[in-house]
Each structure stands twice: as structure tokens, then as C-alpha cells.
User: Which sequence fits this backbone?
């Protein structure tokens, strides 16, 4: 079985289009979207439309990310990221925020052999593999995972950092992010899982896309587009 796993699109339709083209060339049997679908500024409405079309065409399994949860919050004076959320609600189709906010925190596939979540199986906000700025200990990762049932692979996003950890028979993978990179490379990321039962191979994929087109769109159309454009171009979070 071949499973394509991507996430942290963050409203970047330019990066997502390139990732989708690469995934299609690999002809996976299943697709998984790890959440944080539209909280970003490189044409989030089109990124939303593309993700919904993928769900309709391929039956993409989806989990909710932490910014997906934000999109389900009521807007008031105390709402964190209020201006960004208001802008997103103004450009996204009605009901899209409620949709992503209502997705599950985890899904399983391949008869339970693969478990997918954004952060941890029960929280979109908790980093599975990070503790502050360092990689978490094996013991802490196991504690955060809880009971993984018959899973042999756990795939997550959230940290925007690629990582692979072997915990006995369990392989834990952070797939990286489609957009808003943090390591200095703007390349879009996804992972291909291949296997069945207890045996799985993990391929980290990196895809070039038209970063300048994405940055230009953000500068021309988005709230705080200059900041988004800078991160897209540099592959680093602005200070």
C-alpha cells in the first residue's frame, strides 16, 4: 500500500499545487491531510478549493490542525489572531472555518497500521516530537502518544520540521510542511509511506514550486502580506 501524507498547507495554493503534482506521479492508494489547511496568505481560498477537490476525488482523510481550530472560534476583542481570522473569513467560503474546526484530531488507515494526527492523537496543539527547541525524549513521545493500538506508523505535522523516530516496533514521522518552512529552505514537503502490516518504508519528499509567485500574491492581496512573503522566500520564520 502506498499512502501520501501532507499537511500544514497554510493557505499556500502555489506550494500545494506542486505537491499534488508530485503525489499524483507516485500513484498512492490513499491520501492523508494533516491539517492547518488555510491559515496563511498565499491564496487561501484557492488552497481551500483544491483541498476540497482532492477530498472529493481521492477520498483524502483529514485531521484538524491548531489553526483549523482557530477558524472555528467566535471573533471578539479577546480572540487571538483576530485580524488574520477576520481576513480569512472574508475570503473563504462560508462554512469552511466550521468545517476544518470540526475535523477529528486523529484518523487511522491501513487496517489500523497507520495513525495520523496534526500534533498528538488527542491534541492539535501539542508537539509530539519537540520539547521547547529540542527534540523530545523517547519517554515523553511515548507518553504523548498514549495507546496507539495496532499502529506501526504514526505520522504528524505541526512542527514544520521533518523527523523520523523509531520506538521499538513503532515508527514515528513528522512529515514537514507544505508551506511556511522554518529551516531555511522554501521547498514544499510531504511523505510517501509504502508497506503493509508490520513493514513500512518512509520516503521524505521535497518539491520546488514558484515561491516568487506565492510571495507576490501575498504582497498584493493579503493581510500582513509582506511578512508572509518574507517567510516564503527565505524558508525561515521572521523574528
Assistant:
Amino acid at each position: 500500500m502506498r499512502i501520501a501524507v501532507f499537511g500544514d498547507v497554510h493557505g499556500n495554493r502555489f506550494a500545494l499545487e506542486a505537491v499534488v503534482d508530485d503525489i499524483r506521479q507516485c500513484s498512492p492508494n490513499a491520501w492523508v491531510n494533516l491539517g492547518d489547511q488555510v491559515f496563511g496568505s498565499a491564496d487561501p481560498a484557492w488552497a481551500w478549493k483544491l483541498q476540497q477537490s482532492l477530498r472529493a476525488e481521492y477520498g483524502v482523510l483529514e485531521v484538524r490542525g491548531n489553526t483549523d481550530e482557530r477558524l472555528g472560534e467566535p471573533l471578539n476583542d479577546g480572540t487571538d489572531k483576530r485580524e488574520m481570522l477576520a481576513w480569512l473569513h472574508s475570503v473563504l467560503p462560508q462554512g469552511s472555518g466550521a468545517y476544518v474546526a470540526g475535523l477529528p484530531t486523529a484518523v487511522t488507515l491501513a487496517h489500523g497500521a497507520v495513525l495520523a494526527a496534526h500534533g498528538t492523537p488527542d491534541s492539535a496543539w501539542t508537539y509530539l516530537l519537540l520539547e521547547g527547541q529540542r527534540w523530545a525524549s523517547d519517554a515523553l513521545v511515548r507518553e504523548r502518544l498514549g495507546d496507539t493500538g495496532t499502529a506501526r506508523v504514526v505520522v504528524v505535522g505541526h512542527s514544520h520540521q521533518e523527523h523520523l523516530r523509531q520506538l521499538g516496533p513503532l515508527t514515528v514521522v513528522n512529515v514537514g510542511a507544505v508551506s511556511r518552512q522554518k529551516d531555511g529552505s522554501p521547498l514544499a514537503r510531504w511523505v510517501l509511506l509504502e508497506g503493509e502490516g508490520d513493514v513500512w518504508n518512509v520516503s521524505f519528499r521535497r518539491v520546488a514550486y514558484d515561491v516568487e509567485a506565492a510571495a507576490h500574491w501575498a504582497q498584493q492581496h493579503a493581510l500582513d502580506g509582506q511578512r508572509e512573503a518574507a517567510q516564503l522566500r527565505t524558508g525561515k520564520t521572521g523574528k
In short: The radius of gyration is 17 Å. The first strand starts at residue 2 and ends at 6. DSSP finds eight helices and twelve strands in the chain.
